[in-house]
Amino acid sequence: MREGLAHWPVTLLFGPRQVGKTTLVEGFATSPNHYFDLHQAVDRARLEESNFRILDGLDGIVVIDEVQEMPALFQKLRVLTDRRENATRFILTGSVSPRISDASAESLTGRARRLSLGGFTLEEIGPENWERLWVRGGYPAAYTKELEEVSMEVRQHYISDVLTRDLPALTDFKLTNEQIFRFFRLLAHHHGQYWNHSEVAGDLGVNSRTVQRYVELFKGMYLVRELPPYFENMGKRLRKAPKLYIRDTGLLHALLHVRDRAGLYGARQFGASWEGFGIEQLLSIFKIPEEHAFTWSVQSGAEVDLVLTQPEGLVGVEFKASNAPRRTRSMTAAIEALKLRKLYIIYPGEKDYPIDEVIQVVGIVNLTRLESLTTPQKGTA
């Protein structure tokens, strides 16, 4: 954040609701008058009634929280940042990316540093707490509760608020609340599976275009991650469907009614949950942009959960929810087909061990120390 303020007129901070964006940024505001929370009517009025001219007289650092509520701001900020004499710095936060991304990309190109903030990671809470993080997810209010049942209530309320309050305001494709909840539960049951818009549309009784639109909205609200298939001049019959994941496993478990550790270890989606947890942690900890992350599968059965494009070559990552993972024929086929320079197997354990020169087994507690992952980061809007 400080680096962005030093070098860019605007810093954009994206992330889901309730992960601590406001707590992080409000202290940067030069004074209370330099802080605007656009969920508050009084702050929206301060900007709208002055036609944004109030910003002209503010020096130092101005913080505008939940900027997606006022897309017209971006054009004003472009004008302000183009003035050579203007040394004011702006921090903008947003919980929804569809409107923000479109507006900022057009109006603030070359003027903004883009950052992201998600839930807790192993790097922040300590690798020894991996199991609690997996079960409860990374939203601070859910992770920190003393009792499991209270944590579950927090997550259930979060899902309800997002689906009934935030989501309907973002689209003209109107589903009923019942359809929206059913759709999100379907996503949970398809977590870690190859996704087919048409099949889900048939289950919901809507058209494929509506399903695609809502998936994009869920992605834009940082609720769902899509891993596209990796393919590059390969002759084999590749599976070209993407995989979808509920990004926070705490929300996933709330949707699946998995209430605690015992319930998780007995759940049908145990392996898929582990896969999603590992993917989200790895991509977050190593700050790997989504355009460098893929999945790979051929119709004969060989597959890799996660393929990362790296400057030195492709890296594969498998997530195995077993105590002592071993090499499989699928791994051997993937190494040959993709010419992987490294294949990591991440499992719920503590000990690392090599299988050969390419395949390395890594315990989840050592994930933060994983070597050989150096992916260029996104910087500007």
TrEMBL record:
Coiled coil: none annotated. SUPFAM superfamilies: P-loop containing nucleoside triphosphate hydrolases. Residues 9-125 form the AAA domain. Residues 165-322 form the DUF4143 domain. This is ATPase. It comes from Termitidicoccus mucosus.
